[in-house]
Amino acid sequence: MTTTLRKKIDYVSPSRQRWMGGIQMALALGIWAIFSRSLETGTFTTFVMTPGGSEFELPNWIFSTLPTLNTFAMIAFAFGAYQFIKGFGKRTNLILSIVVGLFVFSFLSWATAEKSINLAGLLKGTMVRAVPIALGAFAAMINERAGIVNIAIEGKMLAGALVSVLIGSLTNLWIGLIAAIIVGGLLAWVHGILSIKYKTDQIISSTVILIFATGLTSFVSARFLQKYQHLNSSGIFHSFPIPILSEIPFFGPILFDHNIFVYAMYFFLFFLYFALFQTRWGLRLRSVGEHPKAADTLGIDVNKTRYMAVILSGMMGGFAGAYFTLGSVGRFDEVMTAGRGFIGLAAMIFGNWSPFGSFGAGLLFGFADSLASKLAILGVNISSEFLLMTPYIATMIVLAGVVGRGQMPAASGQPYEKE
Amino acid sequence: MSKKITTLFVLLLIASLALTACGSKDNNAAVVEDVPEVVVDPVKVCQVTDVGGIDDKSFNATAWKGVEDAEAAFDVEGSFLESQQQTDYATNINAFIEEECDLIITVGFLLGDATAAAAEANPDQKFAIIDVNYLAFDNLMGLDFAIDQAGFLAGYVAAANTVTGVVGTFGGINIPPVTAFMDGYAYGVAYFNEENGTAVEVLGWNPETQEGLFTGNFESADDGRAMGETLMDEGADVIMPVAGPVGLGTAAAIQERGGAWIVGVDNDWTLSNPEYADIVLTSVLKNMDAGVFDTTEEVVNGTFAGGLWVGTLANGGVGIAGDFDVQFLIDGIIAGDIATKP
Q: Which of A171, A285, A313, B154 is most deeply buried (CB count within 10 A of its CB)?
């Protein structure tokens, strides 16, 4: 039912086609005018192709900067011109991403001219930075697909982070991880009672939970964790390379030499896609979020389904929170999630409430974030405040420009009242 | 039904607010310590903390240590009030004025306005404020730190210990109290290069353009980890994070990957974070306790005259932890022969 509603429209209007062509040609000219022209012939860019700490070494990739940039500019311009005149039809977005990719790559090559940067480290960092955002987006998605708005992902992350480090310090990492998942589920259950049973405004009830979780974790942290440091040093899950896969040249260490949280992100990406869109369970869950009355008529217990979704989402949020402690630094500090839960929420919306979309948005944010650090290290003359904004700006531009308007589940945010 | 919801909500809200308020430790009311009913001889030194609280293991705690040292050395009685939020600053200062404290110490840049107002309104009350150098009252002592001098030493030590020839740094936010560390660090590395004909490179800070690598916050230890990894990817094997607890994320990254050192900031990290003691090369010390102690001594001796106290290598206000052969640098800096900042 919902799949037909959500069918993608392939039609590209003439004005959009022209605009896209114009933008692509402008990017091509940008490569030439901003980057190429400020370079001298004979400069070389060095990309290190082995991420730090990896055993599988690849030789560095050294290329002559100027001819490469000129070639890119020409390719991008050709794409833009063809798009402007004839149009690529349904492949418009694909071509646009290629051109944007060329532009970003040219920018990086230009900034690295006569220097060297670890390209593999940049991409590996992208995967890691995407983890909390993608997991947060998955948590929000399970909720919203069932028609419950939840802006308290950040709160569940904080609670999960705190509990996992506390229990993890006292017992071991795995029990800490399970505790984080349980606490996330419990907080979500409260949200469920408020928003499903008592039909309160879901934004308000999740705000309450967010404030509660922030306050409680800060309190426990200040009172106990900072005073008794042995409660606040759980250690971390170390990364382990997946045999064979991690030996693939270049991509192996980037994708398959991580700790369990990155692998969990891969797993949930495919698992959620399958579960939500290929199973009866997923169809029921989505129908409750799109048209609860129709679902009820067909004999689906709307509230029960929603409770299940809310609690599963909370468990995912708690798991995402455990990344910050068990997967990253092994200790808790007040408000250490630093807004990643909200970025996850945004990634879900930009990703059009779908697993792959959310993951893509998370990757985009992670890439922009890693790129900004690399540019700061390279000493590109851009103010650091602006560099810190790049992840947010890039996410907004690309997703607003390319993805366009998303379709939220029709009944999201509305309590269901059985008549 | 609706009554139930209301009750539930009210409970949750109250709980949230109450817990948020206690987030920064002890309650206001309970904190005036050791103030006897009848005020007699001892000199009363009263400290108003910033929102971090008295046992924050860095800022407020270090300042309080100065009061405790003074208590041990002279006939001094210390007490403190913790600020839960910024609106508490003035309230706490006024409470101490009524207590007739001999010296009120306010800890931190953020208390500048409240302290200035109180100092102007109470010309007979003696004040001292940490990390503020722009206030000029006869009854106020500003305690400032030439932290670039200590950062210089750390940079020199870092350059002497790097194997890869690359050292790194990053900060929380691009503000002077943070970048002073980084200026000194970069200058120290440059001085080492000049002396020894090496070409050790500093990543993450350019003292000429005053731009570099920042996390944009002082909270996200995960950001600190990412910064540490990216700096190590570029070959840095000594990293100085100037971002409070964020730096502990960098320490975690270094400990996991190995082959690199960390430089602690504010206090000696081998003591405050013993789990990372084996990867701490040195720490850049900002000895706020020395400033508090010196000011208290002036009050005890009756020589307090306000003005500005600057913690330097010469008076022990700043320094580095660990045993390094840097006395010739210290002499050079004190003599003014070596520049530690642009």
A: B154
